[in-house]
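Appendix B. Extra example for self-study. Work through it before the problem class; the solution is given directly after the inputs so you can check yourself.
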Amino acid sequence: MKLVKIAIAQSSCGHNIEENMKKSALQVEELASKGAQIICLQEMYRSRYFCVTEDYKQFELAETIPGPSTELFSVIAKKYQSVIIIPIFEKRTAGIYHNSIVVIDADGSIAGVYRKMHIPDDPAFYEKFYFTPGDLGFKAIQTKYAKIGTLICWDQWYPEAARLTAMMGAEIIFYPTAIGWDATEPQEWGKPQLEAWLTMQKSHAIANGVFVCAANRIGQEEDLTFWGNSFISNPLGEIISQTTHEKETTFCIEIDLDQIEYYRQRWPFFRDRRIDSYSEITKRYID
Amino acid sequence: MKLVKIAIAQSSCGHNIEENMKKSALQVEELASKGAQIICLQEMYRSRYFCVTEDYKQFELAETIPGPSTELFSVIAKKYQSVIIIPIFEKRTAGIYHNSIVVIDADGSIAGVYRKMHIPDDPAFYEKFYFTPGDLGFKAIQTKYAKIGTLICWDQWYPEAARLTAMMGAEIIFYPTAIGWDATEPQEWGKPQLEAWLTMQKSHAIANGVFVCAANRIGQEEDLTFWGNSFISNPLGEIISQTTHEKETTFCIEIDLDQIEYYRQRWPFFRDRRIDSYSEITKRYID
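Solution. C-alpha cells for the complete assembly:
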C-alpha cells in the first residue's frame, strides 16, 4: 500500500485580498495540522472571480512567482511537511499574465509551475482578455508524497490534457476550479451542467487509471453562483469524497496509490492505445 | 430542426446462427416499419460472444462483406428506407479476421465499413486471438439521414477514438457492444463497472458535442451476464433513452441534430483545443 492523505479547501471569496488569503491559510493550516499531505486550493483562491468583466484594473491582482502566495504557503508547507497546490493569477511581466498553479513541496520549496493551457471565453468568463495561454505544456510534478498532475478548470473538458498529464506519470490529477451557475441561463440547465462537469472528470480518472481531485469555490459573485461540489474520484470513476455547493468546507481523505496499478492491470487501456492512428489529433478539424 | 429517428435492437443470442439472425431481422423490421431511420444492432449480433475461449472452430462463424448479413439487411434497408448498422465477425481472407461494422444506407447499398481499432484481451474476452486490429482508421460515414461515427465496444474507453471520429464530422457515434458482468469477479464490482461504462460514453458526447448511442446484448453466456443498458446520450451527456439488462427490447427516439451546433456554440471546446501541444498523444508513454 502507498497511502497518501489528500485534501481540498473550498471557500467563497470577498473583495478583500488579505482576508481571502487569511481564510485559505487557516483552512490549509487546519488540514495540515491534522496530517493532510497534499492540499489543493481552488482556482485563483485569493480574489473574487474577476473575469466576469473585462476590466484593466483587475490586472493589479496579479502576483509574481515567487510572490505573496508562495511566501505565505511555503512557511505552512515547511512547518507541517505538507505539499500545497496554489492557484494564482500570475504576472510574468508587463503584458503577460497567466492563470497558473504553483506546487509547493513539503520542504517549502517550489516543486513546479503549471500555466493553464485551455483558456475559456464565454459571457461572464472573459478569460482570454486576462490570460495568455500556458506555454509550459502539461505537467506531472514530483513531490514528496506523489507525482501530481496539475490542470485548471476549462482544461477539465479536454481528454487530451488529462491523457498527456497521465502519460507523464501523474498519479493524482488536481483541477482547481471556478465554475458555477449563471443566473442569466435557464435554471433547468443547472443540474445537467453540474453532472457533465462531474462526468468529464470521472472519465479522465477511468480512461487514465488515476485519481482525480477537483477543488471549486462557492458563493455568489455577480450573476454567478459557484457550485462547489469539490470531489475526489478513484481510478474506477467512483467519487470517494464530495462537498456540496452550500458551505465553506474542507475534506481530507487517505487514498492508496497502489490502486493505480491494480486498476490499470484489470482495465489495460494504456496497453491497447492505437498510437499509430492518433496523429490527426493535432488538427483543428478533419475536413 | 434536423430531426432523425434513431433506434437500437438489444437481444440475447443462442447457439443457432439462423435463429439469431431471424430474431434481429424481426426487431429491425419492426423498428423500420414504425419509421426508425437509423437502426443499430449489438456487436456480433448473429452469434454468441465466442471470445470467451480461444477456439479455432469459432473462425467458421466469420463472414465476408458482402455476405449473409449484408444480404439480409440490405433488403430490409431498401424496403423501409432505413440505415442499418450491422456489426459482424468479418473474414477478410484466410488468416485475417476483423471485428467490423457494415453500414447499409437507406437504398440498400453499403455506405461504409469500420474495423474495430482497439482490441481487448482479458480473461473471457480473448479478442486478440480472433481479430486483427482495424486498418481503416476511424470513420464518419455519410448516410441518407446523418453522418454517423462507428466504433465498437473496447473503443469506448478511448477518448482519442471518439475525438477523431467527431473531428471527421460524425453527428452520432454508435457503439455496438458486448459487455457484461463476469461471475468470477466480485459482485460488488458490478455497479461501478456499469457506471464507468456509461460515464465514459457520456463524456465522449460532452467533450465532442455529439450524440452517442450504445447497443449492447443481454443474456447469460458461460460466466458472462451481458448487461444490456443500451442507451442514447445527447451532446450534454444526458441519457435520453435507456434499456435495462433484463429483456430483449428496442427503442426508437427522435433526436434533433441541430442541437449539436447549439451546444458547441455554448460549450466551445473545439474552439480552444491546444493542437500545438497534443503531439505526444502518439507516444505510448512519456518517460
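Self-check: Chain B touches chain A through 52 residues (CB under 8 Å). If your reasoning did not lead you there, revisit section 3.
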